[in-house]
């Protein structure tokens, strides 16, 4: 197994963990079902988590493919998705969760 394949697999699992973490945190901290924006954020992120979960399952259940040029593309795609999910979870933390820990309501 090549280093590029391992990096792609790590990015895949990181994206799965952060998208799932976002759904859990968002559900616990917001009434997301009350407006269209919240429903969209939750349904889109849950769909990403579902897709990444299926891909993670397949990465564990299927034998690794032979190393080809597709490995680089796979790694790039999974890395971009993981970075975006980390960003989304960070935004949730900054705008909703962290604010709940500050009694004075400031956005520090």
TrEMBL record:
Transmembrane segments: 6-28, 40-57, 77-93
Protein name: Uncharacterized protein
Keywords carried by this UniProt record: Membrane, Transmembrane, Transmembrane helix
InterPro entries to which the protein is assigned, alphabetical: Phage_holin
Domain of life: Bacteria
């Amino acid at each position: 197994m090549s280093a590029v394949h391992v990096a792609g697999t790590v990015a895949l699992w990181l994206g799965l963990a952060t998208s799932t973490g976002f759904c859990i945190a968002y559900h616990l901290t917001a009434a997301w079902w009350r407006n269209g924006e919240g429903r969209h954020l939750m349904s889109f992120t849950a769909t990403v988590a579902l897709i990444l979960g299926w891909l993670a399952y397949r990465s564990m259940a299927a034998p690794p493919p032979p190393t080809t040029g597709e490995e680089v593309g796979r790694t790039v795609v999974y890395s971009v998705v993981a970075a975006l999910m980390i960003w989304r979870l960070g935004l949730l933390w900054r705008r909703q969760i962290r604010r709940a820990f500050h009694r004075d309501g400031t956005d520090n």
